[in-house]
Structure of type I protein arginine methyltransferase:
Amino acid sequence: MPELSDGDDDDDVDDEEQWQWMEEDSQPVTCLFCDRLLSSVNATLQHCTAEHQVNIVDLIRNYNLDDYGYIKMINFIRSTIHDYIHFLCSEDFLQPVLQDDPLLQTGTESSLYILSTG
Ligand SMILES: [Zn+2]
């Protein structure tokens, strides 16, 4: 029965392909906004929504992102967040650019209050 044995071989190949796909999908994913390692893409998306208030799925829908747009967005967020964290950790910008800058004198609490009251 050559036909049956061919069928079995095909099934084996399918199983292996599916297993490899599952394995790839369960690779740890680094969060877009912090150093957390998440167990899957799905867990990362949920983490971004819960911890960083950024819903990637909503972004894709709101901006009608295709695959290219999605790839660009992910890479853009990763590179800018990396630069941003580096910027926050450095002391390069502690010297005022403008002398007696009123924005610096209000501090974060007043700025947040002004923003929240509009
Ligand atoms: Zn995170």
Q: What stands out?
A: Residues 31, 33-34, 36, 47, 51-52 surround zinc ion (CB under 6 Å). The radius of gyration is 24 Å.
